[in-house]
Specification:
By secondary structure, this protein is an alpha+beta fold. Helices cover 49% and strands 15% of the residues.
Length: 369
């Protein structure tokens, strides 16, 4: 694998075309989608009302855009043949968790049995970005260095304000739901890959986790690929947001990687500050002050996002990606994150079905579906 390749995994909602509620129809939808995307391109998730698609390994943002567009187009067409819709957002606005069926596969039934009520309520949807880094020792130090910027990514990509028919007051309520699982949150600092590997061995040996992929941190070394995986973001409503998320994650990883190789000192940060910054981003998104972990004070969310762009400016310019990524981020700040747009849709009509319609429309925007 070439360094700094990128891959995107998207978790989608399966929605009934008539009533806009979630439907446990993944089995039939998978059969349809496999014809175009192949068995490796689309798969089950924890619930039968979810479906996951993954891009091939990509080298450029153009390839990411083409792959995400193809995934969505194919899945939308497959869904329409079954009177279903596909929606991409961190939570469904009103469908009840009690009515969702677990996927009857050993892995998912094991999660349901182990985590009980926490698992039953985990009807959430994320966007995960893999960035290729072959050296496992360097990868750990890259993870250390990207942690301060995870809250800015979350604020930009938050798309889950509604839950069980209510406005939660959070821009990313998915973050709060997921946070109840063990081995979730911002990872601690690791001095070396050996320290990380030792922790994983102890967690497995003590039955704290069954295998390494059960570590669900916001950024982690992949258990299966020579990548680091960013897991902080809610599902991306639009293709533009998916490309923006992938671009920022890769630029952060490349920037940190260069600093590690140059031997630049790392600024230590307490985990309590990182967790506090993440909570503020989940709660307020782009509309209030967030924590600037470099400056150790609060600043407007928009200013924190601008600092993120400054952080990755040199890397994006060197890769001839600056103009595209800066425009994507600017557009996101102008129109608001997914949570803001969903609240605006609800304010116009007072109907959560209209919120679902917005998400369905945004999910399909730019596809042939």
């Amino acid at each position: 694998m070439s360094p700094f390749t990128v891959g995107v995994e998207e978790e989608y909602q399966i929605v009934h075309a008539a009533d806009r509620g979630l439907r446990s129809r993944a089995k039939g939808l998978l059969r349809e989608a496999h014809e175009e995307l192949g068995e490796d391109g689309v798969s089950h998730e924890l619930f039968l009302s979810q479906i996951e698609c993954g891009t091939p390994i990509c080298s450029s943002l153009r390839e990411v855009r083409e792959a995400v567009t193809r995934m969505r187009s194919s899945l939308i067409r497959a869904a329409e043949r079954q009177e279903l819709k596909i929606a991409s957002a961190g939570t469904h606005p009103f469908s009840r968790w009690e009515r969702q069926e677990f996927t009857p596969k050993e892995r998912y039934l094991g999660i349901a049995d182990e985590f009980q009520q926490v698992a039953r309520e985990e009807v959430i949807f994320g966007c995960h970005v893999h960035v290729g880094i072959e050296d496992p020792d360097v990868a750990i130090h890259v993870i250390n260095r990207v942690r301060p910027w995870l809250p800015a990514l979350l604020a930009l990509t938050a798309s889950s304000p509604f839950w069980q028919g209510q406005d939660t007051g959070y821009d990313s309520y998915r973050t709060i739901i997921f946070g109840r699982m063990p081995m979730v949150d911002v990872p601690h600092h690791f001095a070396s890959r050996a320290e990380y590997d030792d922790l994983i061995r102890v967690l497995v040996a003590t039955d704290s986790i069954s295998e390494p992929s059960r570590v669900y941190w916001d950024v982690r070394p992949s258990a299966h690929y020579p990548t680091i995986e960013f897991r902080i973001s809610d599902a991306s409503p639009t293709i533009d947001e998916a490309v923006m998320t992938a671009a920022l994650c890769r630029a952060l990883a490349r920037t940190a990687h260069a600093e590690v190789l140059r031997g630049e000192p790392e600024v230590p940060l307490r985990t309590e500050l990182l967790k506090g910054a993440k909570w503020r981003a989940a709660r307020f998104g782009l509309e209030m002050d967030l924590i600037d972990l470099e400056g150790r004070h609060s600043i407007p969310a928009v200013d924190l996002v601008r600092k993120l762009l400054v952080r990755v400016h040199a890397d994006l310019s060197e890769q001839n990606e600056w103009d595209e990524v800066a425009e994507l981020v600017h557009d996101q700040l102008e129109r608001g994150n997914g949570a803001m747009r969903q609240r605006n849709a609800f304010a116009r009509s007072g109907k959560l079905e209209d919120v679902v319609d917005l998400v369905i429309e945004e999910t399909a925007r730019g596809t042939s579906g």
